[in-house]
């Protein structure tokens, strides 16, 4: 029997469907719900990758809890979008989309506004919001309506 692509072309339930966003968003639980295993391995040039041919997410061994949460959220967005690679201009668009959608789920607007009122800098904001500075920047660009992507992510796939 040929392998199937269970996520492409169908809308999968997401944490947002169950009103779970922001600090309570748990991408690991979402992956578990979808039956997608997460493996921790030594990775050379990336923090995480979605391997659609094996239906598995691989993340770098030794990530902090915050880094792991952000990497898993990013990889989950690749799964939900049906992405199969990250090369070329289409790959860059997929990376940007995954960062943007993951940031929206990881950082609720209400949490962002609350923390922005008192945090002296982006490092403190990221720490309080339990996200990486990269993911905070993606959310800030999204909220500001920025059309450019801030560069290359270490999350590749």
Describe the fold and architecture.
The protein is globular and about 45 Å long. Helix 1 crosses helix 2, helix 2 (65-81) packs across helix 3 and helix 5 packs across helix 6 (133-144). It contains 6 helices and 3 strands, in the order H-E-E-E-H-H-H-H-H. Helix content is 46%, strand content 8%. It is mainly alpha-helical and 157 residues long. The protein has a 3-stranded mixed β-sheet with strand order 1-3-2, with helices on one face.
Could you give the topology of this structure?
Elements: H1 27-34, E1 38-41, E2 48-51, E3 56-60, H2 65-81, H3 88-106, H4 109-116, H5 122-129, H6 133-144
Parallel strand pairs: 1-3
Antiparallel strand pairs: 2-3
Helix pairs in contact: 1-2, 2-3, 3-6, 5-6
* Count of helix runs: 6
Mean pLDDT: 86
Task: State Rg.
Answer: 15 Å
Order of neighbouring strands in the sheet with most strands = 1-3-2
Helix content: 40-55%
Strand content: 5-15%
Largest sheet: 3 strands, mixed
Overall geometry comes to: globular
Task: Tell me how many strands there are.
Answer: 3
How far do the termini sit from each other?
26 Å
Could you list the spans in which at least 5 consecutive residues all have pLDDT below 50? 1-5
Q: What are the secondary-structure elements, in order, as H or E?
A: HEEEHHHHH
Structural class of the secondary structure composition? mainly alpha
């Amino acid at each position: 029997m040929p392998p199937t692509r269970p996520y492409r072309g169908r809308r999968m339930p997401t944490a947002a469907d169950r009103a779970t966003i922001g600090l309570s968003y748990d991408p690991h639980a979402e992956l578990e719900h979808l039956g997608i295993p997460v493996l921790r391995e030594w990775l050379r040039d990336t923090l995480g990758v979605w391997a659609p041919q094996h239906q598995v997410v691989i993340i770098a061994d030794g990530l902090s809890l915050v880094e792991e949460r952000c990497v898993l959220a990013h990889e989950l967005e690749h799964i939900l979008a049906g992405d199969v690679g990250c090369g070329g201009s289409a790959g860059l668009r997929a990376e940007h989309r995954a960062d943007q959608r993951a940031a929206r789920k990881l950082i609720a607007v209400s949490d962002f506004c609350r923390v922005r009122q008192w945090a002296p800098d982006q490092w403190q904001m990221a720490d309080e919001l339990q996200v990486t500075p990269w993911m905070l920047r993606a959310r800030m660009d999204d909220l500001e309506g920025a059309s450019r992507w801030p560069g290359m992510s270490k999350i590749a796939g």
